[in-house]
Design brief:
The complex is a heterodimer of chains A (about 290) and B (about 150). With about 290 residues, chain A is α+β, with helices and mostly antiparallel strands. Chain A is built from 6 helices and 7 strands. In chain A, the strands form 2 sheets. Chain A has a 5-stranded mixed sheet. In chain A, strand 6 and strand 7 form a beta hairpin. Chain B has about 150 residues and is an alpha/beta fold. Chain B has a 5-stranded parallel sheet with strand order 2-1-3-4-5, sandwiched between helices. Classes of the chains: A alpha+beta (about 290), B alpha/beta (about 150). At the A-B interface, helix 2 and helix 3 of A face helix 1 and helix 5 of B.
Chain lengths: ~290, ~150
């Protein structure tokens, strides 16, 4: 950027000087002062632009540093939180094993609740760490066959839950230029969500395809006919730990869509959703 | 049957690991070092362990984040010394930071296990670990004592 501005100023300087030389022959006094004024204007606009660039670069660096610091802080916090959790889970399990027989049922129930809660917190921490990793990961851009990735994700889900009857349609040849592991994680989260939120109905459908956004840029989508969501709360979908369904209905920590959003934003893209309660959901994303 | 050296600074984790070993019916003696310095003293028979009959554990379970001397430094020292350089070292930590994986594998760690929060999973991990490193795996031939 700096080089370009230097070059433009240099060209401007040459133009002013050569114009001045031609004009000088007809009206020397007038040309000299006009040239002087132009030179002063040129120089001051040059200086202003350079200082503005320096200022922006400084802000950008500070922002970048603060962001990294925040990411590594959240990582180390989540990391350190796991140690006490292991103790809580381990020793409550030890209690169950050692004296569980002698405990009244109510007390055993309390111990079960403790263990259930620690495991849930463990999952939350893991997801939080994964989210922070997404923010810090180095990015490269390559050609990625999203149809291929989607097929693999679905195959893995079918392997894990062979009993689920789900009709999945994946449009062939979905091409993107993106960071392969990150875009894979995003698509995996979206498809897993569709898989999860169709679990309480018969005739589940999932569709992965491509359309265009409002400005005509290519957008990919994952559509399902599952539980959907109340559009009034659509703005909450992508916030970390936001859930629009009870954990007892659909398990999860509420970090998946936050992860998707972070990945899409890192690619300079947009993510949005359409849906209605009990009428399915469709998640769209562009990759910049 | 040689001992297992457990290098771990968190007393709760020590207790839980010992419990997990007991539950897996692993009968090897387990020597606990509460930080890296104690581990090095044990391995090289120095400091608080000077005068002990030199023997090498069958496997060392090594935590990373510890006071005084951390796990990475212990690993470096162990790999640098001819007597201990072949000792099987299993990293047992709660970190899955990429940098930790890279640093330990590139310094010659044999295995890297993340302690799970769920104690049942931890017991399973310890059982498999014991089975593999104490029974299945053929240890390196013992090298001459210093």
């Amino acid at each position: 950027m700096r080089t370009i501005i230097h070059a433009i100023t240099a060209v401007g300087l040459l133009v002013v000087v050569s114009l001045a030389r031609i004009a000088y022959q007809t009206a020397p006094g007038y040309t000299a002062s006009a040239a002087l004024v132009s030179l002063v204007l040129l120089a001051s606009s040059h200086l202003l632009m350079m200082s503005e660039i320096a200022r922006r670069e400084h802000t950008e660096r500070a922002l970048h540093d603060a962001n990294r610091e925040l990411e590594s802080f959240s990582y180390s916090v989540s990391h350190d939180l796991r140690a006490p959790l292991r103790s809580i889970d381990g020793f409550s399990q030890a209690l169950v094993e050692d004296v569980g027989e002698g405990l009244p049922p109510e007390a055993r129930g309390h111990l079960d609740r403790i263990r259930h809660a620690t495991r849930r917190m463990g999952r939350l921490i893991d997801d939080l760490m994964a989210l922070s990793k997404v923010g810090r990961a180095e990015m490269t851009r390559e050609r990625v066959d999203l149809s291929d990735v989607a097929e693999q994700v679905v195959a893995e889900l079918r392997r894990q839950q062979p009993a689920r009857q789900i009709a999945v349609t994946i449009a062939p040849g979905l091409q993107a230029t993106a960071d392969p592991p990150l875009v894979r994680l995003a698509l995996q989260n979206l498809i897993e969500n569709a898989w999860k939120f169709t679990s309480r109905r018969d005739g589940s459908l999932i569709e992965v395809g491509q359309t265009r956004d409002a400005r005509g840029a290519p957008a990919f989508y994952v559509r399902d006919n599952g539980a959907g969501f109340d559009p009034e709360y659509a703005h909450k979908l992508f916030g970390p730990f936001q859930r629009l369904h009870a954990v007892s209905e659909f398990p999860g920590t509420g970090i998946g869509l936050a992860t998707v959003q972070r990945i899409v934003h890192r690619h300079g893209g947009q993510v949005w959703a359409e849906g209605k309660t009990n009428s399915g959901a469709c998640f769209f994303f562009t990759l910049g | 049957m040689n001992e297992i050296l457990l290098v771990e600074d968190n007393p709760d984790d020590v207790e839980l690991t010992l419990r997990a070993f007991r539950k897996s019916n692993i009968a090897n003696e387990i020597v606990v070092a509460r930080d890296g310095l104690e581990a090095l003293d044990y391995l090289f028979c120095t400091g608080m362990h000077s005068g002990r009959t030199p023997s090498l554990p069958q496997v060392m379970l090594l935590d990373l984040k510890m006071p005084r001397v951390d796990g990475l430094h212990v690993l470096e020292r162990v790999r640098a010394h001819p007597r201990t350089r072949l000792l099987p070292v299993v990293i047992l930590t709660s970190s899955i930071e990429e940098q930790d994986l890279l640093n330990t594998y590139s310094r010659g760690a044999n295995s890297y296990i993340r302690k799970p929060v769920d104690f049942q999973e931890f017991v399973d991990a310890v059982r498999q670990l014991g089975l593999y490193w104490l029974l299945l795996n053929q240890p390196p031939p013992s090298t001459p004592n210093p």
